[in-house]
Amino acid sequence: MKKIINFRLLFFLSVAIGALILGICEMFRHNYLWASLSLSAFCVMVVIISLFQGRRVNIIITLVLSLICLGSTLYTLYFWEGKDQKGQIVLTLTDQITQDQKTLFAIGKDIEINGKKTKGKAQIFVELDDQSYLYGLRAGDKVMVYSGDLTALKLDNLDYLNSQNYHENIKYVIRCQEFDIRRYSGESDILSGFRYKLKDIIFKNISDSDAASISYAMITGNRDYISTDIYQSYKTAGLAHILAVSGMNISFLIICISILFFGVKRFRISKLIIMIAFIGFYCALCCFAPSVVRAAIMGIIMIVSKTFGQRLDSLNSLGFASILMLVFKPLYIYELSFLLSFASVFSIVCLYSPFVKLFKKILRGKQGAKIAQLCAMTLSANIGVYPLIAHFFNTFSVYSLIANLILLPLINIAFVVLFAVCLIILIIPFLAFLMAPVGWLLALINALTRLISSLPYAELIVFSLGGLAVFYFICVFIWGGYINISKKPKAAVSLILALFFAVSVTVTNLPSVYAQDFYMAYDSAIGEVGLVIEDNLKYVIGQINKYNYAKIKKELINQKIRKIDCLIITSKPYDAQALIDFGEDFSINKIALITDDWALCDEIKIKSRKDVIQIFDNINYKINDLEIYSYSYNNIRLGSHILVNGKKILYPLNLDKDKLEILNTLSVGCDVLVCNKYIENIDYMLYLIYDCDNADPNIIKLSQINNYTFSL
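Given the sequence above, the corresponding structure tokens read:
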């Protein structure tokens, strides 16, 4: 074992600690299979650590760190949550304030309820009046809620742990009306004031709002001001990583500080302390986002090693950063930005050098060497994050490598100039005009990003690797040269593993084939949605909107459904864009709309380039083997039914008691009633509802059982 593995104590310790924390958390969730597998992985890591030189010291370090992480994890799981409270609430606003004409959203700190201080921060949602007096709120202002509920956020579902809430210590949520609130002016803290200053510099001097919002995100990691359209373009093109503050930011910050001390050979310790202080301040400015904290720790290790003339080991420094972060924030093991940051750096450390050697054989000369390095960096990072992107987003950016090759040099130039100009303007404000060229360059980058993301098949739906992801990263470790075996056996092992994963990824991405027809109802609180499988044709029926879009998409992907044959909307859609996006994501052939709105149908048809069928009232429509019928009485639409395999599924629309009785008469009842509000005037065999108080066994409450399936 000693001769086979290039041992890195801190790296193996970080894997062991991560497995331990994951095992404890899975036990907390009562997921005992994954808990046992994770704890088994922890035991394997401990055994490997114990086989190498300094066995006794290694085991002591491992046990001590394991006990610390065990205590930290248990404390977080059982004591991080706050308690529901009620009364007069006073809090101080941070700089995270967004509002439109109807709603105010903000983050508050220094919470006091009934005069007693409460730990943590709170999200506050305020429904604004038509003539609101809450406009113009700034960081440092105080807000008093006369009598409100301070509702504690729960850790029940770690899969959907809100990363911002956890790493910013947001423990509560407050919902109220504007008349419940009183505001007081206050002064912002240093960090909030600094962020306001940066924001003013950027947004006042860059005329293009998209370019300004991208600039602000590149400096602070705050994506709140980026429009959905431009963010989706960056994500589809495989460039979303530049919007996260990480190694590029920390590296340039270190370079800037090093320039200040150029030629100063004395005061090594003083220079080191100043550098660490600047890095710490920048992390605080970025709200200690996991990606920037990881980069900061590794950056500090690098400058410490250079200061004292020590050899730097990238894998060990990565492991040290992981251990340090997990000790203080154990639930980062579920946090996507933490996982993406470490997976990408791990893959770069392992694969960058082999890929550079490979590409240099193909690309000759100085320019070829630079392109080889860029290709190696991009490909390594993409390989590292693929399992996570496939699991969390179920997407694959086809043109990611091309986009990074074309745009990453421009983005690096834009970032360096942006960072430098921001520092200059903070010192010499009248040089603000220097920001304009940065805006022009970022506007060009945005235009090219939109162009790449609009290309055919720019983003494909892929399925999660599941447990195979563990073996995937073991393969990356082997290919990285950390396993000492001769070239021929290593080549053979690599080929076998590559074939294994090629087959595995192909199998996991094969669409499902269903042996029998069925209907599945999803637990959507806003808009009823169901899936019909009939002769392996797939129909989504109900309402798709911006509120349930992400959930329904995730549910379909979890069932390995990549293509929908027809989308049937049972009421007039109020979110045409959601239908267009849904149609594109699942390559839908037909969209059937029960509406009288010709213009809406034409809009969806033109934008989606799909076959749009407009369903009129009191006419029987047939799509393959499904029959659709919309009921109306005196020009009032009452509801519609879908007839499949002889079963009538009814979707009421007008919930007035008299109209429901008319609908029941016209439809002669139904086999399955689908409605998210409890009604009593329809005859049914089975009632699918999100939630209600009725104890009838024929009423299926989807909020309690998640999804419900019955055969057709």
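The chain has a mean pLDDT of 85. Try to locate this feature in the token string yourself.
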